[in-house]
Amino acid sequence: MKNSLHVLAIDDHVVVLEGYLSIFKNLEIAQPHRLKFTKATDCKTGYEVIVNQTEPFDVAVIDYSIPNFPDKKLFSGEDIAMLVRNRMPKCKIIMMTMHKEMDIMERILDKVKPEGFINKSDCSTDELIDGFNKVMKNEVYHSKTVSDHIKRIEKGIVFDAIDLKIIQLLSKGIKNKNLEKYIPLSSS
């Protein structure tokens, strides 16, 4: 039996990384294990840690919005998560984000298929602990915003790229009669 829990955490806020470390130190499943906690603050340091890692991570907590690394075509936490998924297929991935845009959530769910997906604005520390514990016990965890999005999809309430663009334009104050100036559709 493995005697350690090896965690990768990537977030561009050091205080958030320290919070994750504190949570993992106190997880139910981590108690009998020795915790190995590796931090990265952007796509570049995340890439370097992942490609130079000899022992696969057990879990990776990755923020969606982290500074990019264009040299390796890594533009977000989603790209880093796919790197982890491809190099360490048994690693449990927990995606973190403040974004609530449907297209971002849908892409992460479809492409990354994370074992945990948490919108930071949904969660208290207790909810994060609960989510991390569930993922470590081989359960899937989605925060409220993500769960609500999945329920809308299951009910057939789905938006395509044009629908999303219309919603974004309307939210910016663009009038209905002017939408055809911004999207490839006629006014009808």
Structure, explained:
- The protein has a 6-stranded parallel β-sheet with strand order 2-1-3-4-5-6, sandwiched between helices.
- The termini are far apart.
- Helices cover 41% and strands 16% of the residues.
- It has 7 helices and 6 strands, in the order E-H-E-H-E-H-E-H-E-H-E-H-H.
- With 188 residues, the protein is α/β, with parallel strands linked by helices.
- The protein is elongated.
Taken from the alpha-carbon principal axes, the silhouette is elongated
- The number of strands is 6
CA(first)-CA(last) distance: 64 Å
Taking all Cα atoms into account, the compactness measure Rg is 19 Å
Reading side by side through the largest sheet, how are the strands ordered? 2-1-3-4-5-6
Residue share in helices? 40-55%
Order of helices and strands: EHEHEHEHEHEHH
Short description:
With 188 residues, the chain is of the alpha/beta class. 41% of the residues lie in helices and 16% in strands.
Task: Output the keywords.
188 residues; alpha/beta; six-stranded parallel sheet; 6 strands
Topology summary:
Layout: E1 4-10, H1 14-25, E2 34-40, H2 43-51, E3 59-63, H3 77-87, E4 92-97, H4 102-112, E5 116-119, H5 125-136, E6 141-142, H6 144-154, H7 161-171
Parallel strand pairs: 1-2, 1-3, 3-4, 4-5, 5-6
